[in-house]
Every structure is written in structure tokens, then in C-alpha cells.
Amino acid sequence: MERKIQALRGLPYGPNSDRPLTMSEAGVDPVENADDSDHYLRILFGDIGEVVGVDFLESLDPVLLEQYCVMTVQRNEPGGEVLRTLISAFMSAYAQPASSDQAMDILGNLVAIPAASHRAVLHV
After folding, report:
1. 41-63 mean pLDDT
2. What is the DSSP string of 51-119?
3. What is the pTM of this model?
């Protein structure tokens, strides 16, 4: 967990960066609240590690992990459980001959969402 938090230090925040979501209140520089954010990220990262495993957590990009965690706070949803449900639902659908093709189609659509969103932002 600490390596993930350290990797985030010094990276820019804001809508024109890869870190548009922050734990700071509107109008407050996220750098000023870095210690508070680190505390909450440790808790959120720990939850994900407990639910889906530390090895999985360690494999994630630190910025993506942070942004995911901040979104779970904003949406008031349990980050680890969301991932567990996603993995379990995919495995259940994929394991059935009648739904494995549909599971792969849905996975492909899910994978395409960030790329389409990124392209839309660039064209605005």
C-alpha cells in the first residue's frame, strides 16, 4: 500500500490530469490535505486488498487505484465488494456455455468505455 501512496506523491491533480478526482473539498488544494488523503487511501486500499487480495492490489496502476477509490467514496459504495461482485458475476456468466459469449461481449464493452470516454473528452 505504501508504494502506491508514494507513487502518487508529486503527480498533478485536476481536470487536465489523470487525477481529476480528489479527497479535498471544492476550492481546497489537494496538496494541502495530502496527509488526510493518504490516511483515507490506506483504509480504502486495505479494504480492496482484504476483499480481492493484496496481489491484485499490487498489480494495479496507483493513479487508477486512487481514482477508483475516490469514486467509491463519492458514490458511497464499497470498493472491495464492487470488485468482488464484478469478478464473481463475470465468472458465473462465463462459466456457463449458454452465456459465455455474452459475458465476453459485455467484458469487451466494459473495456471500451474508458477509451471512448477519453476520445469524447479530447473532441469537446
Report:
1. 95
2. HH-HHHHHHS-HHHHHHHHHHHHHHT--HHHHHHHHHHHHHHHHTSTTTHHHHHHHHHHHHHHHHHHHH
3. 0.82
In 3D space, the residue among 92, 93, 68, 96 whose CA is nearest the CA of residue 82 turns out to be 68
Q: Running DSSP on this structure, what letter comes out for residue 39? A: H
Cβ atoms 74, 20 nearer than 8 A: no
pLDDT attached to residue 69 = 96
The confidence band for 25, taking pLDDT boundaries of 50, 70 and 90, is low
> All 3 cell numbers of residue 18?
489523470
- Encode 5-39: b = buried (16+ Cβ within 10 Å), e = exposed: beebeeeebeeeeebebbbbeeeeebeebeeebbe
The single-letter code of the amino acid at 2 is: E
Tell me which amino acid residue 75 is.
R
Grid coordinates representing 118? 477519453
Q: Which of 33, 124, 107 is nearest to 70 (CA)?
A: 33
Residue in the block written with cell 462459466: 95
CA distance 21 to 14: 7
